[in-house]
Amino acid sequence: MRVLIGPAGGESDLAAFYAAPRSPWLRVNMISTLDGSATGEDGRSGSINNAVDKRVFDTLRGLADAIVVGAGTARAEGYGPADRPIVIVSRRADVPPLLRGAEAGRVLMATCSTAPGVTQARALLGANQVLVLGEDAVDLGALRSELVARGFVQLLGEGGPHLLRGLLAQGVADELTATIVPRLVAGDGPRITQGDPLDVPLTLHSLLEEDGTLLGRWLVRPQGSA
Fold first, then answer.
1. CA-to-CA dists, residue 70 to 44, 74, 93, angstroms
2. N or C: which terminal CB in the chain sees fewer CB atoms within 10 Å?
3. Global confidence as pTM
4. CATH assignment at residue 38
């Protein structure tokens, strides 16, 4: 693995290379092909990742206190319980099937007051694990604050594209880590962001390369900066 941009020698210790500059910190980790698809033909990001992306994925999970993921992505990618708490973001409060039997406290639900599944989510996960934040949509800033208050200060978002767009639009994300794999898949797969247009400038922090795969860290510029 080569460092194209960033501290020399950092590739020998990925945990140090990807360490957050401060706490709290919320980074989102995404992957796409060279022609911009966030999934393969099967609709899963797992079908386009590779060994080096998996190494970084595991490193980022190891650095995180909790994982934040949209309910649709959790269902599509087959999320089960992990060694870090998983926070599902869902406007319907729909707990993905593979997470319904998790140990108490290992899965949290972030939803809104109009969600039809709030009662069932509380029954499945426990009342204290269901965070009602907002009326018609999840207030992602309030979610970050609530998680930090619970001691989850290093947060890792794993998509999907609608959640990433929401985190950027609401000014909640600090960093985007993005893998670009050297593949072309055509089709009409999603980009890593989806939803209404927005324009968020990013600053490149570092860039790694291995066998044509590019792994970058981009920092979200503070609002109002040049």
1. 14, 6, 11
2. C
3. 0.94
4. 3.40.430.10
**Which domain range does residue 145 map to?**
68-152
Q: What is the CA 96 to chain-centroid distance, rounded?
A: 16
CA-wise closest residue to 130 among 159, 66, 87, 67 = 87
Q: Which residues lie below 8 Å from residue 152, measured CB to CB, with a gap of 6+? A: 65, 66, 85
Would you say residue 6 has pLDDT above 60? yes
Domain count of the fold of the chain: 2
Q: Which 3-state string (H, E, C) describes 33-49?
A: ECCCCCCCCCCCHHHCC
Cis bond leading into 197, ω under 30°? no
Instruction: List pLDDT tens digits, range 75-134.
Output: 999 999 999 999 999 999 999 999 998 999 999 999 999 999 999 999 999 999 999 999
Question: Is the domain of 53 the same as that of 161?
Answer: yes
Alpha carbons 69 and 161: distance in angstroms, whole number: 10
- Produce one character per residue of 120-153: b if its CB has 16 or more CB atoms within 10 Å, e if not: ebbebbeeebbbbbbeeebbbebbbebbbeeebb
